[in-house]
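Box 3.1. Reading complex inputs
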Amino acid sequence: MTLITQHGAKDDAFTRIDSLEAARTAKGPVILPLALAAAAGGDRPDGAFGLSVPATTPVEEIAPFFDAAEIIAVEFPSFSDGRGLSLARRLRRAGFTKTLRASGPLIADEFADVLACGFDEVELPETMANRQPVQQWMAAKDAITDHYQTGYGERPSILQQRLAARKGATP
Amino acid sequence: MYRYDEFDERFLRERVAQFRSQVERRLDGSLSEEEFKPLRLKNGLYLQLHAYMLRIAVPYGTLNSKQLRQLAYIADTYDKGYGHFTTRQNLQFNWPKLKDVPDILDLLADVEMHCIQTSGNCIRNVTSDQFAGVAADEVEDPRPTAELLRQWSSLHPEFVWLPRKFKIAVTGAEHDRAAIMVHDIGLKLKRNEAGAVGYEVIVGGGLGRTPMIGKKIKDFLPKDELLAYLEAVMRVYNSEGRRDNKFKARVKILVHETGEEEFRARVEAEYAKLDGPTINAPAEEVERIAAYFAPPAYETLPEQSQALDTARAADPALDRFVEQNGFAHKQPGYIALTIALKEIGAVPGDMSADQMRAFADICERWSFDEFRVTHSQNLVLPHVRKDDVPAVFAALKAAGLASANAGLITDIIACPGLDYCALATAKSIPIAQAIAKTFADEARQREIGHLPIKISGCINACGHHHVGAIGILGLEKGGRENYQITVGGDATEHASLGERLGPGIDAEDVPGAIETIVSTYLAEKQGQESFIETVRRAGLEPFKAGFTDFVASRSSAQEAAE
């Protein structure tokens, strides 16, 4: 797996766990499936854990873990399935402020959208990262400077920039 | 017309560069074919039966002469010298080469045009009333709304990977010429009792293999809340629309399976959680856009034009043209003219590069440098001085653009069908040509009156056959092309879906079947009823009976011949 943030590649501190047994014995930070979180989360020796959730999960089922989870990894079944984007928006709106990760076979061309919807990082299968190395993700991220939609990403939208320019022009 | 500012300009140039790099990354293997396909589709590039097809957005159907001249240049340089106007008010080139496409996109960007989201599972080109700003029955001009939505829907970070395509139409008039009842979202500008302007919001209409009339999910949405409300609708659809079966993935299926009440409740619940003011367009921005659509500098003229009246009296062809293709303008002394791209025997919606250049001159000189594309694959000169109509008619005639058949039985909508399309199961253009030839006689067309025929070459219904007063659907049956005939469809505010008259028939029998349907209409017609009015009053039975007799006579004729 390759992890990419808006600043480039990053080492993954988390190990994925898929059983209660493994949750008890694994060293270091782990990512648990949502289904195991209630049972296993409290057993973690150092307390730190993350959650893996399918893109179809209702926010209400994830919200109880907002305090405990260090990270939420939303699983994208395919690069062309946009449900995870809406889930990210809802997670942010519901108050999750820690790391949000998009996991799955995404393509560099959607990196800017993934970031704009509230994700911090993308976790790619190795096969994808080989075809589309980190440099392509960095280039794709900046392909379009501004967007029209207000409330997405850190830059003000085109509509807001027009408004600001207009106010600046007429003091 | 809207003009790009520096933000629009940079956005579009960067989008072209992005596509150019996507083509390069496909060629060097960074992108697989499966990954590249939706990227090229979101840029309007299809792989068709014989070649690539490039679909160019004509936002809400509005163009100027400079843009049309550029389209003519592209047609001559990169295609076979013509373009094809579609039922989404767009323009398609049927023969571009993949390697040329980035250059074509640059040429389009030079005239503030693009192919963004003319295909793919995203929000498509927003369509509107071709008589926007012209019609007297308008509450408010729908174009500023359509332009705001064009911007808002362009490369939307959250809604670019929807379950399926998503089409939005806007009308500002009482009489619906934008077919809002058969769109994923239909918006109608209206006034509430307090006199404030807002939108009626229709969701879940659509044609295709499961045609449905949309449901009204909001009776009155205050105008300034539009973007936040649409974000709520889109988020519910993006999250919950079906992705297990592409034939059940449109929002109409979600609305249908969820139920109208429950769907509305989910949208309202999402909307309640949104912070509207941080999403909606600032009032200043709405005003900035609206200012581009201020009426042109009309002259103050009398309603009646002596010059036109005299010329009409002297020239019966001009008289027929104005009678049939003229549309009342709210400005005294002006008229809107429909240019039917439906010469008898021509391909519906096709326009040659020479015609484009001639028409560009006409619109520049006589219609404030603006024209419209209609969803009936016709064009409109929106603001012509009545005094100028004789000169305009002469110029149109010289360019082969003066067909006086707008709205008549020979003004047929047809999808590209098996002549071009990879999805088609049957031909549609030759069927349209055969019907047009059958009813070529002008006096007979006028006697039959308003009769929209719509032809689709497969169940995806690009030719809108479900809402044709007469609809024709071409299928493949036992290795032969087979055509189902429906009657009673309507895309206006009286929206209804046509019903089948009987079994499918062979291609060569279609003109005869239309003859039979027309005979039934003329026999049943009372007073000044139009075709669709007669169908609504008399019901389908007489049409079915006539059709059944026709089918029987054809099969006995075939037996006798064998």
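In summary: Chain B has a mean pLDDT of 95.
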